[in-house]
Design goal:
Layout: E1 2-6, E2 13-16, E3 28-35, H1 50-60, E4 69-72, E5 82-85, E6 88-95, H2 102-116, E7 122-128, H3 133-146, E8 164-169, H4 174-195, H5 203-216, E9 221-226, H6 228-233, H7 237-243, E10 251-258, H8 282-285, E11 318-328, H9 348-363, E12 368-378, E13 389-392, E14 398-401, H10 408-419, E15 426-431, H11 435-441, E16 446-450, H12 453-466, E17 470-472, E18 490-491, H13 499-508, E19 517-521, E20 527-528, E21 534-535, H14 540-553
Helix pairs in contact: 2-3, 3-4, 4-9, 7-10, 9-14, 10-13, 12-14
InterPro entries: Leucine_aapep/pepB, Macro_dom-like, Peptidase_M17_C, Peptidase_M17_leu_NH2_pept, Peptidase_M17_N
Active site: 335, 409
Domain Cytosol aminopeptidase: 403-410
Length: 554
């Protein structure tokens, strides 16, 4: 789908009538937005169509309510030797202008696309100055997203006629449009990999997708992949407890986006504790991230022994960690059969990180970011982890696994330990983690938990600007007691109450003190269930807005 800004309306064309009339290749449609008071949006730019629009509103009894439509196919104008191809009109109601939030803009964008995709080559949507910059970006992204299809496995594929979208708006919005296009490309990759079936998308497939990105953007992206032998040497036994039940090897994929400065994970100088790597593993230590100068405030003293302003490393990366369980059977604690096919979406967190990295490469934001994909397949077999097993995580803490279906937190736990070697400004993990989150928030907002007020504020601000909504959830110490185990440092489930909270509490135990961290539970927002089951591509818009804001703040 092509989308562009324009300052002109579509033109009327003439075409000679042949004995066998050819299909017009320049069929165009002008989309006019009308509010609930029958006010025409961008009216000053539509003077040539004013009478025709008003007549259409009158004869159709058009009210302007949200997503109401009426079409004028411009059939008049036939002559003996020529046919005048008048531009078609589509009136779309937007309802109350003060209620044009992301949800309303998405519905309007979908209505426009669905009303025109089968019959015209191009549409021009008259916006004028009706939308603020962030609303414009949301609207453009939603128009593009409406064109997304995943039909590669259908024997018959229907290609839409609509190929070009023009937005009649001010030139100052060009940067917002370019950014929306970058987000769309990343979001589409997220949806593509998440929609793939489990026999196609498994851990090695995710690694291949990341490596393909590195080949496409070699100046920006570096990818390192750790296999099970390397993770075993690192002591990542929580991760391996999930992966060991499957014949598909687990993979930890590290994607280093170097948008501001080069930072390397292959120096061979990283210090490794005895709990992680014992001697003779130079090849492995070469793959460990370099310990960057601490992002924490480092105090310096002057000649008078007075403390000066803390120094921070502006080049330290932000790390995004995605849960990548490419199929979640539940393991030995097997899930019910109903809708188990949707467990292919349990890698939605890693899919969103992969898509965010692609969007970053397209937008070329001046910021350093690491994307970590914690990929495993959770299957029942003779080698699978049993309920009651105890394993040690990379940080040396022991975990009693009471439910093998609480597996996402296990792969994330070891990955969180690993990525802290980058000394990041912030770590944000994202996961389709708990059914309890769906019970709490449904399918509208993702849950966010955080140990840092600044990170939380920045994510909430990005949520408001992008329309990719989140909701702050509690992380009180009192919830931690639900994870106590009589025979290990902790257990991997916390009982029936506050399931989403105790899952976040579990993850918090693998984040070092002073490290800014947030956890996003996207169990209710990563995909739509039912007959039209499909990945949504969230929270790529949220992440991109957050990273864009972070890049401009440095």
């Amino acid at each position: 789908m092509n989308i562009k800004l324009t300052q002109s309306l579509p033109k009327t064309h003439t075409q000679k009538i042949l004995k066998k009339e050819a299909k017009s290749k320049d069929a165009a449609c002008l989309v006019v937005l009308v509010d609930d008071k029958k006010n025409i949006i961008a009216e000053s730019a539509l003077s040539d169509y004013q009478t025709r629009i008003e007549q259409l509103i009158e004869v159709s009894h058009f009210s302007g309510s949200a997503c109401e439509t009426v079409e004028d196919y411009a059939l008049a104008g036939d002559k003996k030797t020529t046919k005048q191809n008048l531009v078609q009109l589509l009136l779309v109601g937007v309802g109350k202008l003060e209620k044009l939030n992301q949800s309303a803009l998405q519905k309007i964008a979908n209505t426009i696309y669905q009303s025109t995709q089968k019959r015209v080559d191009s549409i021009t949507v008259a916006l004028g100055d009706a939308l603020e910059e962030n609303q414009f970006g949301q609207f453009a992204l939603n128009l593009l997203a409406a064109s997304y299809r995943f039909d590669k496995y259908k024997s018959e594929q229907k290609t839409p006629v609509l190929t070009d979208i023009y937005l009649l708006a001010d030139k100052s919005l060009q940067d917002s449009l370019v950014f929306a296009e970058a987000v769309f490309k990343g979001q589409s990759l997220t949806r593509d990999v998440a929609n793939e079936p489990g026999n196609i998308c498994f851990p090695a497939y995710m690694a291949e997708q990341a490596q393909a990105l590195a080949k496409t953007y070699p100046d920006l992206l570096k990818v390192t992949v750790l296999g099970e032998d390397e993770m075993s040497a690192l002591g990542m036994n929580c991760f391996l407890a999930v992966a060991q039940g499957s014949t598909k090897e687990g993979k930890l994929v590290l994607m280093e986006y170097q948008g501001k400065s080069a930072f390397s994970a292959n120096t061979g100088k990283a210090s490794v504790s005895s709990a992680k790597v014992t001697g003779g593993l130079k090849a492995l230590t070469d793959k460990l991230p370099t310990k960057l100068p601490s992002k924490k405030a480092s105090k310096k003293t002057d000649k008078n022994n007075e403390t000066s302003t803390p120094v921070t490393n502006d080049d330290a990366p932000i790390v995004l960690v995605g849960k990548g369980v490419t199929f979640d059977s539940g393991g030995i604690s097997i899930k019910p059969g109903a809708a188990m096919d949707e467990m292919k979406f349990d890698m939605g967190g890693s899919a969103s990180v992969l898509g965010t990295i692609k969007a970053l490469c397209e937008a070329r934001l001046p910021i350093n970011v690491v994307g970590a994909l914690a990929c495993a397949e959770n299957m029942p077999s003779g080698d699978a982890t049993r309920p009651g097993d105890i394993v040690k995580a990379m940080n040396g803490k022991s975990v009693e696994i009471l439910n093998t279906d609480a597996e996402g937190r296990l792969v994330l736990a070891d990955t969180l330990c690993y990525v802290q070697r980058y000394n990041p400004k912030a770590i944000i993990d994202v996961a389709t983690l708990t059914g309890a989150c769906v019970v709490a928030l449904g399918h509208v907002r993702s849950a966010v938990f955080s140990n840092d007020e600044d990170v939380l504020f920045d994510l909430e601000n990005a949520s408001n600007l992008s329309g990719d909504l989140i909701w702050h959830m509690p992380l009180d110490d009192e919830y931690q007691a639900q994870l106590d185990s009589p025979i290990a440092d902790m257990q991997n489930i916390g009982g029936k109450g506050a399931g989403a909270v105790t899952a976040a509490c579990f993850l918090s135990r693998f984040v070092e003190e002073g490290q800014a961290w947030a956890h996003l539970d996207i169990a209710g927002t990563a995909w739509n269930s039912g007959a039209n089951k499909a990945a949504t591509g969230r929270p790529v818009p949220l992440f991109m807005q957050y990273l864009k804001n972070s890049a401009t703040m440095v």
